[in-house]
Amino acid sequence: DTLLEHMSVQKMIFAEEMKTDNSALYEKIQETDVEREFVSHEAFKKLTQDTVAIIRTGEATPYANVILESDVLF
Asked: For residues 55 and 21, what is the distance between their CA atoms, to the nearest angstrom?
């Protein structure tokens, strides 16, 4: 929620496994109006190879990682 307040996000990408292995977080993200995409955990790991920045939060629940695609604000 805090990141979405301070940056423009056009899409969030999650591991498909979140739906079954982290249902509390899955339900929480359903409340956002940002486009969501789900890919396999293996595909998610491959997508992270093109990461520009990483924010480490200390979150320890399974499949809680997210890739945020940011809009251009100008």
From this structure: 22
CA distance 52 to 25: 24
**Contact criterion met (CB below 8 Å) for 67 and 41:** no
Residues 17-56 pLDDT 10s: 999 999 999 999 999 899 999 999 999 999 999 888 888 8
Q: Are 63 and 14 in contact (CB under 8 A)?
A: yes
- For residues 65 and 73, give the distance between their C-alpha atoms in angstroms, rounded to a whole number: 24
Beta pairing partners, 35:
11
Amino acid at 14: F
